[in-house]
C-alpha cells in the first residue's frame, strides 16, 4: 500500500513519454486488438496535444527491422524532443532522453510504449527510482501476450507505478467539464465510438429545440 | 499488506455512494454483461434499502449525452441526497457531495458507479486520502473492457480500497441469519436465480411437512 | 441447404413449447450465465403471452430431484396445457403432450427447455420427423457446457431445425412496429437493459417537446 | 453442400445493402469490440465507394430511440437510395427498399447491418428466396452476444448465404492487384493497422532506392 | 440436411467402440480439462455396461510411447473383444476390428476415442461409408486443441455422423425413467456432481417423510 | 510485501477448516467446473486425512435451502468437530468453531469453502486478525463467477493470506518424497489424471524389469 | 451431407499447395499463436517432404510490403514449382499455377496459406469447382481473427472442402505405422512436444532393456 | 511496494536455475500451449548460454514417472551442476543444490521450472528468505491451469519476487544493442517468429543496397 493513497495527475505538472511505437515492433503486439490499439495510441497523442503536455518521442534502432516511428506520431509532435536511441534498450539509459525529461520540469510522467515489459517497464522503474510519479497508460502499451502483460504490470505495480488508461488520464487531467466541454467532448467523440453515438443521438434529438 | 487485516463492514457505520449510473453512460459498460450488470446494480440498491444505509446519488451532466439517472434508482431513494454535478468529474471535487457524505456521520463508504476507473476510482481515492474506509462494489461498477477494469482495480487496491461484491457486502453487513431470515432470503431470492431455485425446491418439498 | 430458404415465423401459425424449466434442473445449466438465462426464459414467456401464442408446459419428474416448474411460468400460463410426464424423457413420447401440440392446429413450433441436448433436442427431432417447422430458442435453452451445446445445435441443424433467439423470434412474429409500437417496446424495455436505456434517454430528451 | 461450389463476387454484378447502422442500435452490439466494429463498417463503406457498387441505405424508426443513421454513412453516400422504413422490421417487407434493390439490376447482394439475426438475417433470407446470391459481411454486422451471432449465422448458412468479411469481399471484387495497386493499397492501409505498418516500413526502406 | 431428421439411438441396436484411450495418448488431449475428460470416459463406460451394449476395445501400438489402455476400461470390460492393432491407424483398416463390429449385429455405432480427428474420425467415416448409423460421443473424445476439434467435428458432420455427449446418449437409450429409476439415477449421480447434489438435497429433505 | 518472505506449511502445526461445502450452496459455484471442483474438494479431504491434520467441519443453515454437507466429507471425518452454525455467516463469529480451532493448538490454518468471498474470506480475515498464518486452498473454494473470485482473492491477499492449491499444499506438507513415496503417489494418482497416466505408463514399462 | 461420406487422402494421389506464407503477410495472422503457427507450417512442409508429395509454392507481390516467402519453405522445396504471381489475388486465376497443379496429375489437393479467407479460400473454391477433392490444412492457415476464420471455414465447408490439420492429414496419408515407424515418429517428435516427451520417457525407460 | 523500486538484472551478478523440466512432468503443464512452452524453455536456455550465466540443473525423481530431464537442456549445459534430487520436493532443501547456487557467487537468481507453484515457488521463497534477488521467468514455468498459476504468482509476488519473461530478462541483461547486435538478434530470430519475419523482410529489402 502506498503511503499517500491519492497521487493525482496534474496537467501543470505532467509530461508524456511515447516509447518505441514503431511500425515493425507493432507486429509483436498481440495482447490487444490492432484496431483498438491504434485508436488508443492516437487518442493518447490527441490527449497530450489537447492538454498541451510536453511530450517526448523516442525510438530504438529505427533504421533496422524495428522500423520507423508511426508517421502519425511524428506529424502530431513536429517540435517535440525526438531521441532516436543508438542502442540503449532502456530509454532511461540514454542521457539525451533523461535530459529531455528533466528539461520539462515536470514531476509526473505519463508513459506508454511497445513492448510493455521492456520499452515501458524499464524507464518506468528507472523513473520511479529517481522519485518521479509514474502513470502507465496500459491501453496504449502493448506486448506479446496476456501472460507477458500481466507479469509486466505486476513488476511495475510492485515498484509503485499507477496503471491507468488514456480515458482515465484525460478525465483526471481535465478535472471539470466546464473547463472546456466541447474540447473534451471532441476528444472522446473521436476515439470512443459508443460516446460518439451518444452525442450523435443527443444532437439529433435536440437539434430542433 | 494493510496493518489491520480485517476491516469489517458495519451496518451502523456505513453509507452507500451510487455514482453516475446514467442511461447514456451505461452504453459504455462492456466488462460485464448488461443483464447481469442491471441485476447487480438493483441488488445493491435493494441491499442499501434493506439495511437502511444512508445512500447518496450523484450524476454527471445528466442533461447531456450521459443521460438521466436510471429511473429505478431515483424511485427507490426519493429522499436521498441527489447531487447533479454541474461539471466536476470526480464527485469528491463537488462540495455538496462531500458535505452529504460527511453529514451521514459514517466512516465506511460502499461505492459503485460507471465508469469504474473514473467515476468510481476518483472519489474512492479521495475518500481514502481523507481517512475513510472504502469498499468498492466491483460487480455494480462497470467500464469499457477487462483491461481498463483491471488497471482500475489495481490502482484502488494499491491505495487501500477493499474490493467486494454486493452479495459479500450484504453478508458482512447482516452478520447472522437470525437477525432476519426472511428479509435476507428475499433479497437473495430476488437477485440470485440459483438461490431462488434452491428456495423454490426447498419450499415445494417441505410444503406438506 | 434447405430447399426453401426462408421459412418464416407466422404468429397465426405458431405454438410455444416450454420443456422442463424446473428449479432443480436449472442448476445443471452452465453454458449461459444464470442472470441472463432467467431473463431470456421470462422474455420468451412474455413474448408468447404478448403474441397470444398457444403455449404448452411440460415437466419431467417434478416430484423428484428435478424440482418443480419455475413458479413464474406456472403463474403466467395458468390455463395452458400442463403435462407432468410420468417418466418419458422425450416429451414427444408422451401421448398427452403430442395431443396438446396437435390440438393447437399450428404447424410451427417454437421450442426451448433444459437441458438442450435432451429435453429440447429430442422433441425437436421428433417434431421435424412429423413435418413440423421447428424453431429452437437457443438463448432460452441451457445445458452443461459449451461443448454439449455445440453438439446439440449441430444435431438439430442437421435435421432441419432453425436456431433463433427470443428477440429474433419476437421481431419475426411482429413483422411491423406499427402493429403495436408500445407493446413491443415494453417487451424489449423489460428484457433488454440497453434498449431500456435508449428508451429512457429518448423519453427524457423528448419529454418537454 | 451447394450445387455450384464457387459463387464468386463480381464487381459488375453486385450491390451493397447497409441496414440499420443507427446510433442507438449500435449500443446493442456486443459480439465485436466497438473500435473494431466502427472500423469494419467504415471499411465496408469505403469498399463500396471504391468499387462504385450501387449502395442502398435503410433505417428503422430513426426518429425514435433507435437513433439516426451514423453520419459517416450518410455523408459518404449522399445520392444513394435512402429508405427510412416507417415500421417494417424486415427491410424486404418494404416495397421501396425492394424496388431500389431491383433497380440496381444486380444479382449479387452484399449485406451488413445491426442487429445480425434480425436486420441482416431477415432480408438475407428473403433475398435468397427470390433467387439472389447473397454475401453477408459478418464483421460489419453486429448483435447482442456470441450465442446470438452463432444462431444467426447458422440460419443464414442453412439457407445458402455465404459468410464473408469486408477484406475478403474486397479481394474477391478486385481480382488482380494490377487493376489498381494504389487504390486497393490505400483502402487496406486506412483500415488494417498491421497492413499500414507493413507499407510504412516498406516505404521507409525503399525511399532512397 | 439429412433425409430422415430423427435417427434415434436404440439400445437393442447399438454397439460401443472405445478407440485408443491409452495412458500416453491422453497426454495429448488439451481441448477438454483432464478431470472432466476422465469423468466423461468413465461415464461412457458405465453407460455401456448399464445398457449391456456390446463394447469393443482397441489400441494402437500399446507397447510403445502411446502406452497401455487405461486400466479402468480393461477392468470394466474383461470379456469384450480387445483388438491391439499392430499398426493400422484407422481401426477400420484392421480386419479383426471390423469383424468384431459386424459380429455384434448392430447397425448403430457409438464411438469415442483419442485423438478425435484421427482415432475417432477415421473409423467413423469408414463406418458411415458402409451404411452404419454413427453417433460420436464428443465429450469422451479428445484432441490437441479447439481448432483441431472443430475441424474434426466439421468433417464428421458433413459425412453424416451425429454429435452427442454421454449424457444425451444415455437419455436417448433409456427412453423412460420408469424403465429403471434407480439405475439411471445412480449413473447420473456418479458422474454429474450437480445432479448428485440435487439427489442428496432431495433425499435429506424427504428422509423423514 | 510480507516481512518474512517464506511462511511455510508445517504438517505438525497445521489444521484444516472446511467451510460450508453443502449440496445446495454448491449449485452457486460457477468459477470452476463442477467435475474439477468435486475432485479438488475430495483431494483436499484426502490430503487432510493422509497427513492426519486436525480437521474441522462447519455448515450454515443445513436444514434449509443450503442443504446438507456433502456426504463424502461427513463420512471421511466421522470424528471431526462438526459445527452446524445456527445463523452466523462468518464461522469465526461462532464460539464453538473458534474454540475447536484453538483446541487444535495449531498456528497454521488451511481453509477452503463455498462461497469464496463470504464463507472463506470472512473467517480467513478474522483468523489473520488473531495472528494465525492462513493458507487458502483456492481450487477447493468456489463462488459465483470470475469477477467475484478475483475480488475475494484481492481482499484476502491484502490482509496477508497465502493463496495455494491442494497440490501445492500437499507438496509443501510432505517435504520429501522419501517420507512415503507410495502414500503421496496414491494421493496424486487418485486426483490428478495426468499423473495417474504417467504412473500407469511407467508401471507397465517397468513391470517386466 | 456429401454423397460419399469418406473421401480419404491417398498419398499416391495428393499434391500440396502452399499459398502466400510470406514474411509480411504473417504479421496479419492473429487467429493462432505465432509459435504454434510457425510450428504447424513447418510440420506441414516436413510432411509433404516425408510423403514425397508434389508441392507447389506461390506468392503474392513478394517484392512489396507482403514480403518474401519464409526462407524455410524455399529451402525445403528447392525444385518445386514456384509461382510468384504478378497480381492475381486468387492463385487459381494464374495460368502457371493451375498448369503446375494439373501437371502433378493428382486429384487431391492439400492446401494451406495466409490469409485463410482469401489466399486459401479462393483457390480452394475454384479447385472444387473443377472437381478436385480439396483438403484444407486449417492449422497451417491463418488470418486476422476468429470471426474471419469461422466465416472462411463456413464458406469452404459449404462448397465441399474437408477441414483437417497437418497431424490428421499425416495419419491419413500414412495409413499404417508399419510402413515406417521411425520416419513418422520423427515427424511427430519434431513437431509435437507432448509426443516427443512420450518418446523420450519411453526410450529412457526401455534403454536398458 | 518494495523499498527500492528498480532492482535490475545484471549479467555479472546473475545465475539461472532450471528446475524439473522433465519429460513426464511436462504432461501436467496446461496453463500454456505446448508449442509455446517448449519454445520459451529453449529460449531461456539459449539466453543463459548467450550471456554465459552460470546455470544449475536439477530434477526430481527422474527414474520414476516424472521422467528424465528434457534432452535439449542436458545437451546445452553439459558441464553445469546437475542435481538429481533423491526426494526433496523443494530444491532448496537439497544441500548440494544450495551449495551449487552459492558457489556461483551471484546474488541474483533467474528461476524457471515445472510446476510453478511447487518446483518454482518453493525454492524462490526460500532464496528470498536468504536475501537473494529473485526473478521468476513466468513463461518458461508451467502448471496445471490458470487458477493454479495465478495463486502461485500471487504468493511469489507477495514475498518480493519479480515476475518476468525470457524476452524481458534478455533485454535487461543486454542493456545496449551495441554490445552485440548480431548475437541478440539471432537469439530473438530463433525464438520470436514475428521478429524473425521482420528481420527477413528487412534483409530482403536491403540486400541490394
From TrEMBL, chains A, B, C, D, E, F, G, H:
Superkingdom assignment: Bacteria
InterPro entries: Hydrolase_YcaC-like, Isochorismatase-like_dom, Isochorismatase-like_sf, YcaC
UniProt keyword Hydrolase, yes or no: yes
Positions of the Isochorismatase-like domain: 15-166
Keywords: Hydrolase
GO MF, any single term: hydrolase activity
Pfam families: Isochorismatase
SUPFAM superfamilies hit by this protein: Isochorismatase-like hydrolases
NCBIfam families according to UniProt: C_hydro_YcaC
Protein's name in the database: Isochorismate family cysteine hydrolase YcaC
Species per Swiss-Prot/TrEMBL record: Castellaniella hirudinis
Amino acid at each position: 500500500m502506498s503511503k499517500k493513497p491519492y497521487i493525482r495527475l496534474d496537467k501543470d505538472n505532467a509530461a508524456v513519454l511515447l516509447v518505441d511505437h514503431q511500425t515493425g515492433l507493432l507486429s509483436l503486439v498481440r495482447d490487444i486488438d490492432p484496431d483498438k490499439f491504434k485508436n488508443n495510441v492516437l487518442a493518447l497523442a490527441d490527449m497530450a496535444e489537447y492538454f498541451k503536455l510536453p511530450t517526448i518521442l523516442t525510438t530504438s534502432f529505427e533504421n533496422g527491422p524495428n522500423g520507423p516511428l508511426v508517421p502519425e506520431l511524428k506529424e502530431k509532435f513536429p517540435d517535440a524532443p525526438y531521441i532516436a536511441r543508438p542502442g540503449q534498450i532502456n530509454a532511461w539509459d540514454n542521457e539525451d532522453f533523461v535530459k529531455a525529461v528533466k528539461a520539462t520540469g515536470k514531476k509526473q510522467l505519463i508513459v506508454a510504449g511497445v513492448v510493455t515489459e521492456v520499452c515501458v517497464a524499464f524507464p518506468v522503474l528507472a523513473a520511479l527510482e529517481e522519485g518521479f510519479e509514474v502513470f502507465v497508460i496500459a491501453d496504449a502499451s502493448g506486448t506479446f501476450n496476456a501472460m507477458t502483460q500481466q507479469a509486466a504490470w505486476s513488476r511495475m505495480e510492485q515498484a509503485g507505478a499507477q496503471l491507468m488508461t488514456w480515458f482515465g488520464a484525460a478525465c483526471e487531467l481535465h478535472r471539470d467539464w466546464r473547463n472546456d466541454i466541447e474540447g473534451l467532448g471532441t476528444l472522446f467523440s473521436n476515439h470512443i465510438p459508443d460516446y460518439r453515438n451518444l452525442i450523435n443521438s443527443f444532437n439529433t434529438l435536440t437539434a430542433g429545440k
